[in-house]
Design brief:
It is found in: Membrane. The protein is α/β, with parallel strands linked by helices. The chain is built from 23 helices and twelve strands.
């Protein structure tokens, strides 16, 4: 096939003693007509492309309710991703105008490709070329604000979001773990929620040990994963291998990895890519994005997909890539890393944007028009059956009603509760700090209010001490849990998207795991303070006071969970917490009498756990005291405990209503916290 016009070198290079640098880029439009000249072609020659025939794609009959089979050929075509740009002009904001979409940025432009079983396909390109966006589009996990269109198929059958959850592994760039667990504990949890529910426990343990050995994690199997800046644990390479171990537990036939060598040295990077190469040799389909691999890593790749400006510039083997760019007049120098060369050729140089973009556009058009590029497009668009039709047939089968989760609700609950409890007891510093803080504050309050008498002076002191009970429990518990869901939110969202467990299971288990601590702390606090102050000397009243303080502590804990679930970051939660608590504090009946609350704020006082807790504690303290000693005759002196309650506008008959309201607030705040967390899972989809 001869070109319709003469071609000249599109990219000329000059070499120096140290490195070859691209000096000038000149592109001319090229069109092809036959099998001669500068075109690439299929055949038996040394540089021909070895593409698998369309017949190798599985038909729709290969699909069943469990999987697409052990070998997956993943194809995608006409994949476009757009980012909506909103009108954020200051004038429009001041005029309260609605933010309107004024443009859409085209990120991915008609991307296409084919990934075969047993091959390691690496997506390469300069920063901003669209590598991660393409990978997220292939896994249906685009970020908020992005919209996508295109055709993705497995074994020739069109798929939609959620279909590949159980047959796909997605190793993202950031390693997210619960840092207090060991390697074995983490993998045991993964096995409990990701492996099929019919697999017995001994088989899961065996599989965990196999994966630990396969990924060279035996030496660190009992090592704590670690928390950056707080607890030393695994190295960067061990972290990345643990990410792979988490994903290969279920032996998925399709794996996608986003920058798996990011932040690793050359040795560790080579180890990681070697692991991927070994997994591909076992028949897995592996797609990886890499920014700038070394020449040693480049030699391990089976196929490369070069991206530039959101378009496909080339797809094939490394030798085919060198041949392709050589035909364009951009031959890779013999002493140059091909990966660096290709990235530089397809990069946009600052100050020369128009020339570089024209060069990229010409390269992408040339490859797509070539016989090899057209063959890839043909295979990517070959669809043998619509997913909707196939799914309709299998929905009628007897197994179609199975949950999308591998583990049942009870198994999820048991596994998540086990991990949550481990994360609590493996933070001894936090537990010790909480108990030490409780003991110190209780001793301080006990010393300040030590030995109060039931007289005119003691009334005011005891009332103040009881309200401090509530204030201390509130702030101590709120700030103890205000970061619980904020810190683990990225981990939760990732694991939830992977179909590991339900939102309600996670929320219930996280709250249950910390419940024993929030029951023991009020008991310790009251046990120390109650006798030191000299409150009503009766065992029954002591236990009632302890129960009231525990209820208030759990209400404040529930409110802390609500703030944590609403906030996206710990800093936001810490900023929101105190200002929101202050109004509840003011309507507690100590600083403002309940009878003098303005009518437009009455509804707010009904939500104040300070009010119910304060009224219950005062009733428990004063309801059975018939006489109070008057130490001064020139001032008003309450004659009995009932008089004190009347002063605060509290009634003895409302005691059990206060207890019921405290229980109701616990339930209400936790329900609101759960729905706030649930809304985040919907927004992240």
């Amino acid at each position: 096939m001869t070109a319709t016009e003469e071609t000249e070198p599109l990219i000329s290079t000059t070499s120096s003693s140290s490195v070859n640098k691209i000096q000038r880029i000149t592109y001319r439009t090229i069109s092809f007509e036959n099998n001669e000249g500068n075109t690439l072609h299929d055949g038996n020659s040394e540089n021909s492309f070895d593409l698998k025939p369309i017949s190798s794609l599985s038909t729709a009959a290969d699909f069943n309710n469990e999987s697409f089979g052990n070998n997956i050929t993943y194809t995608w075509s006409n994949v476009n991703v757009y980012c909506s740009v909103k009108n954020d002009r200051i004038w429009d904001r001041l005029m309260f105008k609605s933010r309107k979409f004024i443009a859409q940025k085209h990120i991915l432009k008609d991307a296409y490709g084919v990934a075969y079983p047993g091959e390691l396909l690496v997506i390469m390109g300069a920063s901003g070329a669209g590598k991660t966006t393409l990978l997220n589009a292939l896994t249906f996990r685009l970020a908020n604000g992005l919209s996508a269109s295109g055709l993705m198929a497995v074994n020739g059958q069109r798929i939609s979001p959620g279909v590949l959850t159980s047959r796909m592994a997605y190793v993202q760039q950031d390693d997210l773990f619960v840092g207090t667990l060991t390697v074995t504990e983490h993998l045991m949890f993964q096995a409990a929620v990701r492996m099929d529910r019919q697999i017995p426990r001994n088989q899961r343990i065996k599989r965990v040990n196999e994966v630990i050995n396969e990924l060279a994690l035996s030496k660190c199997r009992n090592t704590v994963i670690g928390i950056p800046g707080r607890k030393k644990g695994l190295s960067g390479g061990e972290m990345k291998r643990l990410s792979f171990a988490s994903e290969v537990l279920t032996d998925p036939p399709l794996m996608l990895c986003d920058e798996p060598t990011s932040g690793l040295d050359s040795f560790m990077a080579h180890q990681v890519v070697s692991i991927l190469k070994a997994l591909a040799a076992r028949g897995k389909t592996i797609i990886v994005t890499l920014h700038q691999p070394s020449s040693e890593l480049f030699a391990l790749f089976d196929k490369i997909l070069l991206m530039a400006e959101g378009r496909v510039a080339f797809m094939g083997t490394a030798a085919q890539a060198c041949t392709f760019f050589k035909t364009l007049g951009a031959a890779c120098p013999s002493n140059y890393n091909p990966a660096d060369f290709f990235v530089q050729v397809l990069a946009v140089v600052p100050g020369r944007e128009q020339i570089c973009k024209y060069a990229i556009e010409t390269t992408c058009d040339t490859f797509r028009r070539s016989e090899h590029g057209a063959n890839i497009v043909l295979k990517a668009e070959a669809i043998h059956g619509e997913f909707e039709d196939t799914l309709r047939r299998f929905n009628q089968s007897k197994n179609s009603s199975r949950s999308v989760y591998k583990a049942s609700w009870c198994e999820q609950f048991r596994a998540v509760l086990w991990r949550s409890w481990l994360s609590v007891i493996k933070e001894p510093i936090l537990i010790k700090v909480r108990f030490l803080q409780t003991i110190m504050v209780s001793l301080l309050i006990g010393i300040i209010y030590f030995g109060q008498q039931i007289d005119q002076d003691g009334v005011m002191n005891i009332n103040g001490a009881l309200f401090i009970f509530l204030t201390n429990m509130t702030f101590q518990n709120v700030f103890a849990v205000i970061n619980v869901f904020c810190v683990e939110l990225p981990i939760f969202l990732r694991e939830h998207k992977n179909g590991m467990y339900r939102t309600d299971v996670y929320f219930i288990c996280k709250t249950l795991a910390e419940t024993p601590i929030f029951l023991v702390i009020p008991m310790i606090f009251t046990t120390i303070v109650y006798p030191m102050i000299g409150l009503y000397p009766d065992v029954k009243h002591f236990f009632i006071a302890t129960a009231i303080v525990a209820l208030v502590g759990n209400v404040s804990t529930s409110f802390g969970y609500l703030i944590s679930c609403i906030s996206n970051r710990v800093s936001v939660a810490l900023s929101v917490g105190p200002p929101v608590i202050i109004p509840f504090l003011l309507f507690g009946g100590f600083f403002l009498n309940t009878a003098s609350v303005p009518s437009y704020f009455v509804w707010f006082s009904y939500l104040s756990w300070f009010r119910y807790g304060n009224e219950a504690l005062l009733i428990n303290q004063w309801s059975e005291i018939d006489s109070i000693a008057c130490t001064r005759s020139n001032v008003t002196c309450p004659k009995s405990g009932r008089t004190i309650l009347q002063t605060f506008n509290f009634k003895k008959e409302d005691f059990w209503m206060d207890i019921i309201c405290l229980f109701a607030l616990i339930i209400a705040f936790r329900f609101l916290a759960f729905f706030a967390l649930l809304s985040k899972t919907f927004r992240s989809k």
